C-alpha cells in the first residue's frame, strides 16, 4: 500500500515471514561452547593448503614441482651430492627425505660416485646392512667401495679370495691405495705361506702406485731401492723417491688451512715424546702433523682393537697406529732389529713410525735384561746396536 507521498507500508504477512526466518537462522547460528557459554559465531572456514591454492590458481607448488622433475635430473643431482658428502650420516639423511629420493639414491650411477668419506663406516657400526651397502657400491663400480670392502673381507672376515679380488678390481681401475695394499700382501705372502712371497710383484705394484702419487708407495719403493729388496740396489734413486714422498706429504699438509696452521706451529722444532707431529723433513728442520689414516686402515685398527688384537694365537699387529693390518700367519711381519719390541707390515710403516714415535722409545734389548741374563742369552755380547739413520733396521 502506498501513501500520497509515495511511501510503502510493509505487508503484514511478509513482516511475519521475515521475523520467523531471522529466528530460525539465529537458533541454528547460536552454539553452546564447552564451558557452557553461548556463542553466536559460526565456524570459520578451513584455510586452503598451498597445494589447493596453487591448483585453484592454476599454478604449481614446491611439491608438485619436485614431482614433475624427471628422474634423470634427480639422479644427476644425487650423484653430485653423494660425491661431496663428508660422512655416512650425510648420505643417509639425503636418502631418508622421501621415498622417491630413497629409491633413486640406490641408482648405480649414484652409488658409483659415493665419496670415500661417505663410505667410512666405523667398526662399531658394522652390520649386515652396512656390508650390503658396500657390496652394492662395489657392484656399481665404486673403486673406493671395492678397496674398503676388499680390505675388510681379507683381514677382518678372513675371506682372502674375495677380498683380494675386490682389491684387484680397484687396482685395475688405477686405485693407488689398492695397488699399495696388494703390494704389501705380495711382500709378506699374506694369506698363504712364507714361500708365497713375490718381491718382484710387490715392487712392480709399488712402482705403479708411486706413479699415481701414493705417498706410502713412494716411501716403500725408495727403501726397496736403497736396500736392494726385490729390485737391483740403487741408493741414489731410492733417496730421490724418499724425498719425493716427503715433499708430497708436506704439500698435502699445506693444501689444508687447518693442517698448515698446525705445521707453522711445529716447524723448526725438534720432535719430543709428547708431540703430535711427524718430522718427515727432518733434514730441512720441518715438522708436519701425522697423516690421516685411510678409512679402510682406520676400520682395521678399530676392528682389532675391539677384539683385543689379531684373531689367531701368536699373531701380531703392525705397530704403526695408522695401519691396522694384522698378521695372517705367525712371524709374518718384520720386527725392529734393535729392540725387537715392535712389528711392521712394510718398510713404509716402519720408517713412518720411527719418525712418529719409535725414535724416542727404541732401546737395545740388552737394556731390558739383567747383566747375567743378558750374558747367558747373548753369549756375553751386546744385543742390538744403534738404529740406522733412516730408522729402518729390521729383521724378519
Automatic annotation (TrEMBL):
Residues 1-59 are annotated as: Disordered. Residues 320-362 form the MYND-type domain. It comes from the Eukaryota. Keywords: Metal-binding, Zinc, Zinc-finger. Pfam families: F-box-like, Sel1, TPR_27, zf-MYND. Residues 16-25 have a biased composition (Basic and acidic residues). CDD domains: F-box_SF. Residues 47-59 have a biased composition (Low complexity). One of its GO terms (molecular function) is zinc ion binding. InterPro entries: At2g35280_TPR_dom, At5g50450/At1g67340-like, F-box-like_dom_sf, F-box_dom, Sel1-like, TPR-like_helical_dom_sf, Znf_MYND. PANTHER family: MYND DOMAIN-CONTAINING, OJ1485_B09.11 PROTEIN. This is F-box protein At1g67340. It comes from Elaeis guineensis var. tenera (Oil palm).
